[in-house]
Amino acid sequence: MRGKYIELYRRKRKGKTDYRLRKRVVVSRLPFVSIRISNKNVLVQMIKAGPKGDTVLGSASSKQLQKFGWLFSKRSLPACYLCGLMLGSKMKDKVNSKVVVYMGLKPYVVGSRASAVVKGLIDGGLKVEADQNTFPEEKRLNGSQIALYAKNLKSSDPDLYNRRFSNYIREGLNVEEMPVIFEKVKKMIVERKGVIE
After folding, report:
1. 22: which DSSP letter?
2. What is the reported pLDDT for 1?
């Protein structure tokens, strides 16, 4: 007797959707945050699932960080934290319930850029259940580690420093000032509730 073939959903076949996880998120009836990190940018969206489809309640992109004065990498760990902070500051008055983090098929890794986004969401004022031990250290969040590495590299191997940070040098940015600029941008995001014209 031949076995019965059960056809999988197309998005499951293509490895795009984990339907068990998706079902748990939808059944919870809580708004969820989708984190998408590409090769150049970060996109964080607050989404509410409904019978007619998902509705985006708010979003924050690392491209918007330029308006706040962040001219460094838009996909680095500090940029991820600032994106989370921006969305958290925008949505804290609009969302009163808990928020679920939905990563899709990507795993939530301790100390990763996704965990930096979650830390930013919590600092922005959203209620997200997350283990504090999964967040990156403060020196990684504010770019101190990058600044220290740049400072040491500049003194030990100037040629490698010029090659590694060539884009920043071309733009006239000093990598060693990253933590100072980070704090200024963070303060501006909190003061303006994540919105700038």
Report:
1. H
2. 55
pLDDT at position 15, please? 78
- Mean pLDDT per 10-residue segment, the chain (197 residues): 75 80 87 93 94 92 94 94 95 89 87 95 93 93 94 94 93 93 95 81
Q: What does the block give as tokens for 44?
A: 């964080």
DSSP 134: G
Q: Residue 21 has what pLDDT?
A: 84
Query: How many CB atoms neighbour CB 135 within 10 A?
Result: 21
Torsion 176-178-179-183 (CA) sign: positive
Q: 14-191 has which fold? A: Nucleotidyltransferase; domain 5 (3.30.420)
Tokens describing residue 188: 């501006």
For residue 102, list its beta bridge partners. 34
Q: Under a CB-based contact definition with an 8 Å cutoff, are residues 78 and 72 in contact? A: yes
Residue 173, number of CB atoms within 10 A of its CB: 15
Structure tokens at 129: 């259940």
Q: Which residues contact 105 (CB under 8 A, 6 or more apart)?
A: 15, 16, 17, 18
